[in-house]
Amino acid sequence: MKKFFLLLLLVINISCTDDDPGDVLYSSEVVKVTGARYSASNVDFNNTYSAFMAAVNEEDSLEIFLEINHAANAIALGRVLNPSRLLFFGSPGMMIPLLQENQLAGLDLPQRMLFYQNVNSEVFAVYNTVPYLSSRYGLEQAEPLQHTAVLLKNLANAATRAEVRTAADLLVEQGQGIISKKSTQAFDATYSAVRRKLGAYENVTILTEINFQDYSPVQESENILRPTKLVIFGMPQLGTPLMQDSPTLALDVPQKILVWEDEEGITNISYNDPAFLADRHNLPATAPEIEQIAAVLDEVSSVNTTN
Question: What percent of the chain is modeled with pLDDT above 90?
Fold first, then answer.
């Protein structure tokens, strides 16, 4: 397997997947994240995470795109955060068909799995479910979705040695929590402008960039993936205090901006609405940090746009 970057810092037939909404529906006072599944580990944090990484490395089809140690980033800011690590990983063979169906899915690809320890020293693995992805992006690719559901559950099982449970409702409305703006410029110029704008912020760090076309095999023109790039960037001075209040937020930070060209050749800039993420993780949308993150995303995404 390849490690590209390492950093410390529906409507579908859901019955065909391992993420059936009726499967171990669990009302938990500990983990309530719409569209997520979780597993409470039977071993300590370090052994849980080590077992997960070993399981990921055993899968030849998986590539690691980014690893983040949220707790280490908090220490660098002079703050204290319980152990919290996030891994971006995925199989290009499973990602590309989903992106060909809806490029916006790049906001939740590659897959992510969060490991964190709460104030009671309980360790959890949390990840986005296939029904969440398929409902949010209108995905219907049964084979890659089913394979992804099984893979994620197996990885969580291997790490925690415990059953995987459903944290809350699995489904959202298509396009829910996504903000998109149309650029007046071509794709390359728009992406460069977004990157320059991010680089102008003193407290913003670009963590990695993913050009999804790099993983798309040569195909017939009607199935080719149009230009689609994701930039992942951190604002730990804003994210850390929010994660102190809601540790599951670490599943959805750092921030992401997706630049993509649609079928009409128009370039779009899309990102997750911070208010949606706040609600997903039981935080007030009016929290000062949420509003500041929203302001940065709005400003960066407004380069070269008509919105």
Answer: 82
